[in-house]
């Protein structure tokens, strides 16, 4: 156990940012804002940075604290998070520019741990003990290739996410709208419960303002869904996505961004010889490639881009 003085010294040594705001959507889902001590590094919509807390910090569930071994003591527990984005403050007609903000926004779900012996210390149970004004560590760099660099002015853009996989899409969507993108922009979000739709009101206001924008949400554990669960893959497989939006999934002029549950993404595996196989259950990549789309693979870029969240 660390003394109070030891913990204070460790915080002063390692921490370089302040948690300025917590928006608790439900007990397991937060939107937080973090302001680093130094100027914010510029970033492209869709990129990520790292947050961290010392493994000396308490967790929200002391009964299941990890038994940290000697090699991990006095270390930072770190995890990469895509930047989320508020899109606008009060007026949906005035979309924010990341360059005008003095904070980063993150969309984070609590990942409970069971205290299994030898497991790496976890971050979110420690984050959940913080209050506004508390200190933490934030990585000095922003990076990532999950960006809009491949989008042409005439391209349709579809964003598909589960849970907090929606985070990087918020800034990407706002960037497209702020720059006057005219073709269809579609955001698909699948969560367990309606309470997990942290940006629903924000996106619905934008949808009313932008005729080319469609925000479609799915829930899988609400009472009305228990007998018929509909997933994002189902919207593509059945053609319901095209029926609802009026678009055509044309690989010649459509890019698809996918972030979240690996089962939804369905990342292919490649042999050394270049043969490809898809996982089970069928994910978005397989469904789209069957319709002429092509997923990114290393430096060979296609029109399906994905970011795995766990």
Task: Characterise the protein shown here.
With 310 residues, the chain is α/β, with parallel strands linked by helices. The chain contains eight helices and 13 strands. The chain has helices spanning 4-14, 124-127, 167-178, 200-209, 232-238, 240-245, 262-265, 284-289, and strands at residues 17-26, 29-36, 48-54, 76-82, 104-109, 135-138, 156-162, 185-191, 213-219, 254-260, 269-270, 276-277, 304-308. The strands form three sheets. A six-stranded antiparallel sheet has the order 4-3-6-1-2-5. A five-stranded parallel sheet has the order 9-8-7-10-13. Strands 11-12 form a two-stranded antiparallel ribbon. The longest helix is centred in the middle third of the chain and has 12 residues, at 167-178. It is globular. It starts with a helix and ends with a strand.
Fraction of residues in helix: 10-25%
Low-confidence stretches: none
Number of strands: 13
Structural class: alpha/beta
Radius of gyration: 20 Å
Task: Describe the structure using short key phrases.
8 helices; 6-stranded antiparallel beta sheet; 13 strands; alpha/beta; 5-stranded parallel beta sheet; about 300 residues
List the helices and strands and how they pair.
Elements: H1 4-14, E1 17-26, E2 29-36, E3 48-54, E4 76-82, E5 104-109, H2 124-127, E6 135-138, E7 156-162, H3 167-178, E8 185-191, H4 200-209, E9 213-219, H5 232-238, H6 240-245, E10 254-260, H7 262-265, E11 269-270, E12 276-277, H8 284-289, E13 304-308
Quick rundown:
It is built from eight helices and 13 strands.
């Amino acid at each position: 156990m660390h003394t109070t003085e030891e913990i204070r010294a460790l915080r002063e040594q390692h921490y370089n940012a302040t948690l300025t705001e917590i928006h608790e959507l439900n007990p397991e889902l937060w939107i937080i804002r973090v302001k680093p001590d130094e100027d914010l590094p510029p970033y492209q919509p869709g990129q990520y940075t790292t947050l961290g807390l010392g493994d000396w910090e308490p967790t929200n569930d002391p009964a299941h604290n990890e038994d940290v071994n000697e090699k991990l003591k006095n270390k930072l527990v770190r995890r990469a998070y895509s930047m989320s984005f508020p899109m606008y403050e009060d007026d949906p007609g005035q979309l924010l520019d990341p360059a005008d903000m003095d904070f980063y926004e993150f969309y984070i779900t609590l990942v409970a741990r069971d205290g299994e012996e030898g497991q790496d210390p976890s971050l979110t149970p420690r984050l959940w003990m913080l209050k506004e004004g508390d200190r933490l560590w934030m990585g000095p760099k922003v990076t990532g290739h999950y960006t809009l660099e491949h989008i042409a002015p005439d391209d349709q853009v579809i964003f598909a996410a589960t849970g907090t996989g929606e985070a990087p899409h918020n800034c990407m969507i706002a960037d497209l709208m702020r720059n006057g993108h005219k073709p269809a922009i579609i955001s698909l979000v699948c969560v367990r419960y309606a309470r997990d739709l942290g940006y629903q009101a924000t996106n619905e206001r934008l949808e009313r303002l932008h005729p080319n924008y469609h925000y479609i949400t799915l829930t899988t554990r609400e009472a009305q869904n228990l007998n018929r669960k509909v997933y994002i893959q189902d919207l593509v497989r059945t053609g319901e996505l095209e029926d609802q939006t009026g678009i055509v999934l044309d690989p010649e002029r459509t890019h698809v961004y996918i972030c979240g549950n690996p089962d939804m993404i369905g990342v292919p595996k490649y042999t050394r010889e270049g043969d490809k196989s898809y996982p089970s259950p069928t994910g978005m990549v397989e469904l789209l490639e069957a319709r002429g789309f092509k997923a990114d693979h290393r430096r060979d870029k296609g029109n399906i881009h994905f970011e795995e969240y766990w």
